[in-house]
Amino acid sequence: MLRKLIKYEFKATARIFLPLFLAMLFLALLNGLFMGPNVGGENSVITTLRSILLFVYIVVIFSLFIVTLVITIQRFYKNLTGDEGYLMFTLPVKTSSLICSKLIVAVIWELFSILVTLASVFLLFLRESRFYGEFWEGFSRFWEESRRLFGTSFEAFLWLAAASVLIAAVVSILQIYTAIAISQLFREHRALIAIGSYFGISIVIQIVSSMLFMTSFLSRIDGLVSSVEITAEGAAGVAPVFELINAVMPGMMILDAVVGVAFFLVTNYIFKKRLNLE
Amino acid sequence: MQPILQCSHLSKHFGYLRALDDVTFSLERGRIIGLLGPNGSGKSTLIKLASGLLVPSQGEILVDGQKPGLETKLQVSYLPERTYLNNWMRVRDMIDFFGDFYSNFDKAKAFEMLRRLNINVRDRLKTMSKGTKEKVQLILVMSRNADLYLLDEPIGGVDPAARDYILNTIITNYNENASVVISTHLIADVERVLDDVVFICNGKVTLTSSVDDIREGQGKSVDALFREVFRC
Lengths: 278, 232
Prior knowledge:
The structure holds 2 protein chains of 2 kinds.
Chain A: H1 2-34, H2 44-81, H3 85-88, H4 95-123, H5 130-150, H6 152-183, H7 190-226, H8 240-273
Helix pairs in contact in A: 1-2, 1-4, 2-4, 2-6, 4-6, 6-7, 6-8
Chain B: E1 5-14, E2 17-27, E3 32-36, H1 43-51, E4 58-63, H2 70-75, E5 76-79, H3 91-101, H4 107-116, H5 130-142, E6 148-152, H6 160-173, E7 179-184, H7 187-190, E8 196-201, E9 204-210, H8 211-218, H9 222-229
Parallel strand pairs in B: 3-7, 3-8, 5-6, 6-7
Antiparallel strand pairs in B: 1-2, 1-4, 8-9
Helix pairs in contact in B: 5-6
């Protein structure tokens, strides 16, 4: 049943995201066509058009990320706690499947939004094909240099960073879900309570995490920092920087994941046992 | 045979408000039951408990011997007072949706009823009037081969002609093992289709009886009795 829920969740959201993605790629393409060095010369019409196109493109990038957030909230709030909730919560599916379907689809759109934005940036340089070669060259040089300097710890760092970004994305969406779920425990001012709980949760997490940071990380940092020696031979001594970061990151990821699981359990409990649709 | 719906000492509180208060009764299979009471008497709360949208504060509610959950949600076909249809969908999408999630949904039956009420399956729900949406919703609910139909104010928003068609649909579309619960305060309209009535007032069930017993025993219609019992 989770598969079917995901299918309908995609249907409901694709009609908003796909046109936006297309608009973005199309605008990037237009910008790319007009951005070449020899296009139009001093022609002021072309120059104006060029700036307008660039402005619209940037607006679309911003709106895509706002839309991603709004849709994430709206699909959960409206489809589960609004009138449509009467349909969703009487389907023969588990409450956890309802939450998971929303979460999975929201994360996927978030990732796609980032990927499409990056892809569109490449389209901007359409008329300067040299750029692609230079970019690739620069990128490989950066990659090789980093590996030479930092060794395998750099690669490990990238993997860890990617994983922690993904976890953070999931947890941040679950925090929104939890805030909305908490608001369902009250009969009035639900939207206001949802916003309030969201910031309340953020503050609590800030306090707890900074306390954990103080007690656990700072006690170990002396030992770790002393292992980083800046030697006269140059940068070779900074290699342990990433080892240092890599040593800390898994712990932070686990903490993040624990918070995420707690968010999920709270949301699931409220929807299962304390649901009271308006 | 096991009753299709059983409540024993069932209570539901919302804070200080006792929406249902120590309710005990059961409903048999193969009956059309009127759940009758004034506004705010607890009709919707009872139906929501049976459909699994609410969890009891005290006591127990059983659908076919089971607590509301995954299995009972497949057996129960629930029509809320709200329109829960997704506005961006077309009628056809809604039919596919029901077909996907309910193994007991009869698509052919739904198409036939839509045709009878002149509703185009390609129409978007967004462009429909409130009454038409209610008709679509009722058709979706009645096209399921369920064991228990819970209809919360099913005829409130539709015109009298459609009202008759809908009531006829209800009586002709359920099988002898299924029961239909109709909650309403428009008693005169539904009286002719009812087998049993449950009177509910201030969260308490004040009367459960068959319609025949009311007519023969008291010599009056359900409507007249209701007006007498709930006189303001």
